[in-house]
């Protein structure tokens, strides 16, 4: 039997390792940091089956090693497994939590954000041009000055996060998705993230606004008041399940913190990587960029092809079979932590053809770009997908329309990678604007 693949805590480009693993099968045994045995589902069809399977859960109570006390504090992936929120909830709990925030991400509500996203994009492009004009050789970090602040400002305005918190929240988000972080550093980052989120919540409690955080706080307050009215401590502790308005309007304090954490981290990190990866892809495939600039291809197609070809999330933790489960001929034992291998599935030749490793906006079967799984599948499909697509489409169109001769000012191999096998991108993107 082939030895399990050791996930590199330092991250790096995943595609060569993915291709090698896919030749051996759609499901692979892997070893996580700290020597924790796990599995990764890599093949497109296998991942689609697994993520939609009724006997697959996300709740930490199904993680055997965690339940048995074999996962230490400070383990770099522990937050992914234990944070209270949509990503670790199943069934009715998941539906309840998702319903509380879903109205903010409907296609109609997202489309209403278009003018503000366009305004922010143009402001950032003005700043990018000014920075390049004053920089040595005209080289400027597009990731830092454009790809990061756009989604960070959009999600912060949607959530009502004050400007004073945004830089620190991004830095802490980066630490939370790192897979090479040490135990003490990880625990410090988690404690500080809780403290900063607490300050965000305190700010919105003091001055409620027309934002999602204020709305969630109001839901939480109504649930707590209903529990207090029952005059029993048991009802107060059970407020998420037995208090509040009828139906889904119930939220505990830990779920409030967890939901805010998820919205901030996922709401900007994924789109940040998507914009960065798309710019790299188009700059290294000038013939594809020319199709976009001359109107022979649509910018939305560039977003979908980037999602498939260079997914902004490489391996997402965790799902757990609730019974021994066979997927693509491989047994995944009950309680095993399983990584969703989005970057591998996006280049799976069995789903995307023998040239799956080629970036192209035309010539691929018409359904190929819509069949990628990079934004998830099933009940846990990314709630923010419409917003990520809109932001990235606007960002790419306006960036390259204004700077059609933009070039990456370094070789691909020289670009520093994210220190994570969860996120998939580079940590810097030096460019010249032409």
General description of the model:
This protein is an alpha+beta fold and 434 residues long. The chain has one domain (5-432): Cytochrome p450. Helix content is 51%, strand content 9%. A six-stranded mixed β-sheet has the order 1-2-3-9-6-4. Strands 5-11-10 form a three-stranded antiparallel β-sheet. Helix 7 packs across helix 20. The protein is globular. The model is unreliable at 231-248 (pLDDT under 50).
Beta-strand residue fraction: 5-15%
For the sheet with most strands, the description reads:
6 strands, mixed
The computed structural class is alpha+beta
The CATH C-level name is Mainly Alpha
Order of adjacent strands in the largest pleated sheet:
1-2-3-9-6-4
CATH topology type: Cytochrome p450
Enumerate how many helices there are, as a single number.
20
Helix content percent band: 40-55%
What's the pLDDT, averaged over the residues?
92
Topology summary:
Layout: E1 5-6, H1 15-24, E2 27-32, E3 36-41, H2 44-51, E4 56-57, H3 64-67, H4 78-82, H5 91-102, H6 107-111, H7 114-133, E5 140-141, H8 142-147, H9 149-159, H10 163-177, H11 183-206, H12 212-229, H13 233-237, H14 239-242, H15 253-283, H16 286-293, H17 299-309, E6 315-321, E7 325-327, E8 330-332, E9 338-341, H18 342-345, H19 349-352, H20 385-402, E10 407-408, E11 430-432
């Amino acid at each position: 039997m082939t030895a399990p693949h050791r996930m590199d805590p330092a991250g790096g480009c995943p595609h060569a390792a993915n291709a090698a693993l896919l030749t051996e099968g759609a499901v692979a045994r892997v070893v996580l940091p700290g020597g924790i045995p796990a599995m990764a589902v890599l093949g497109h069809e296998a991942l689609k089956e697994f993520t939609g399977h009724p006997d697959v859960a996300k709740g930490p109570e199904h993680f055997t090693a965690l339940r048995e006390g074999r996962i230490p504090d400070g383990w770099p992936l522990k937050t992914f497994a234990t944070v209270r929120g949509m990503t670790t909830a199943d069934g009715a709990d998941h539906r309840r939590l998702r319903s509380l925030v879903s109205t903010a991400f409907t296609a109609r509500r997202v489309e209403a954000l278009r003018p503000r996203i366009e305004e922010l994009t143009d402001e950032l492009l003005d700043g990018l041009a000014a920075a390049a004009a004053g920089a040595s050789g005209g080289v400027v970090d597009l990731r830092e000055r454009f790809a990061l602040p756009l989604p960070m400002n959009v999600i912060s305005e949607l959530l009502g996060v004050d400007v004073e918190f945004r830089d620190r929240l991004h830095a802490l988000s980066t630490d939370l998705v790192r897979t090479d972080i040490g135990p003490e550093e990880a625990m410090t980052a988690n404690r500080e993230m809780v403290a900063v989120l607490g300050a965000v919540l305190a700010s919105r409690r003091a001055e409620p606004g027309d934002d999602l955080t204020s709305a969630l706080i109001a839901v939480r307050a109504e649930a707590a008041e209903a529990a207090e009215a029952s005059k029993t401590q048991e009802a107060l502790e059970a407020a998420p399940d037995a208090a509040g308005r009828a139906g889904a309007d119930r939220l505990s304090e830990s779920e409030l913190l967890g939901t805010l954490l998820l919205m901030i981290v996922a709401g900007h990190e994924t789109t940040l990587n998507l914009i960065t990866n798309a710019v790299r892809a188009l700059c290294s495939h000038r013939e594809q960029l020319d199709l976009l600039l001359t109107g022979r291809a649509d910018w939305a197609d560039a977003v979908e092809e980037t999602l498939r070809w260079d997914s902004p999330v490489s391996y997402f933790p965790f799902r757990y079979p609730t019974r021994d489960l066979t997927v693509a001929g491989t047994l995944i034992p009950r309680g095993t932590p399983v990584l969703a291998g989005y970057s591998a599935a996006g280049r799976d030749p069995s789903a995307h053809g023998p040239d799956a490793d080629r970036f192209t906006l035309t010539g691929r079967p018409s359904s190929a770009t819509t069949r990628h799984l990079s934004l998830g599948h099933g009940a846990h499909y990314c709630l923010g997908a419409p917003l990520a697509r809109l932001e990235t489409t606007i960002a790419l169109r306006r960036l390259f329309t204004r700077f059609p001769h933009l070039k990456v000012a370094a070789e691909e191999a020289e670009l520093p990678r994210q220190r994570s096998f969860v996120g998939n991108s580079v940590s810097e993107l030096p460019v010249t604007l032409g």
